[in-house]
From TrEMBL:
This is Phosphate ABC transporter, ATPase subunit. Residues 4-245 form the ABC transporter domain. GO terms for biological process: phosphate ion transmembrane transport. GO terms for molecular function: ATP binding; ATP hydrolysis activity; phosphate transmembrane transporter activity. Keywords: ATP-binding, Nucleotide-binding, Transport. It comes from the Archaea. The keyword Nucleotide-binding applies. GO terms for cellular component: membrane. InterPro entries: AAA+_ATPase (IPR003593), ABC_transporter-like_ATP-bd (IPR003439), ABC_transporter-like_CS (IPR017871), P-loop_NTPase (IPR027417), PstB-like (IPR005670).
Amino acid sequence: MIVFDVKNLSVYYGDKVGIQDVNIEIYKNKVTAIMGPSGCGKSTFLRSLNRLIELVENVRVEGKVLFEGKNIYDPDVDPVELRKRIGMVFQHPNPFPKSIFDNVAFGPRIHGIKDKKKLEKIVEDALKKAALWDEVKDRLHDSALRLSGGQQQRLCIARAIATNPEVILFDEPTASLDPIAASKIEDLIVDLKKSYTVVVVTHNIQQAARISDYVAFFWMGKLVEYGKTEEVFENPQNELTEKYLTGRIG
Ligand SMILES: Nc1ncnc2c1ncn2[C@@H]1O[C@H](COP(=O)(O)OP(=O)(O)OP(=O)(O)O)[C@@H](O)[C@H]1O
């Protein structure tokens, strides 16, 4: 099933091109990796899937992003509601300077949940799904800033999960972590696709191969190739993709 149907999407920063004329379908309960060299438009593309891109000054978006059939850029779409359905995890773990519990309860509270028992259940479930519960269950009221980098990133994943999204977007989620912490996040991402649709930006080719079902290769703002990960890696259709995968460009 198609979750995002992106049609002729272009993003401009002033008169500079971020991405140009991107067409892509993203599938439900799959991990889709967005790969390509620095500056090729990966983050721009990712941020246009939940309208986070609009927070940049002077940005202009053209084309459509149909999310379950509805263009998210239609004037009647509330970006705050949209971002509840499409969560995001960033490159650097960015927990709030609050307790572990309050970090995860933050979104649900904003969306009006006040009941203590309900919040406790949401927090526990989200921490379990983020594979962090066992490590923090006895210190939920400690500061999140005392967790390790990898734990902080899993906390940010729990925070995204707590608002019960349909999609989770990851922007280079392991780029600032050591290999062991990164590997835990990779395992977690693969596990999360059972419940969510996942889109991951990575400049790490091996990571894209390990965790994704579909892979998109961007080059200078354009989507050059997109397909099943196995097929793209084994038999790239575009010469640029082949060069990138074999380390001859990028
Ligand atoms: N806020 C901005 N203002 C102006 N230009 C921008 C802005 N953000 C991105 N760009 C430009 O848009 C293009 C795409 O950038 P983007 O950050 O999406 O690439 P990326 O593939 O995610 O790169 P990286 O891997 O380095 O994060 C680049 O040319 C970049 O310089």
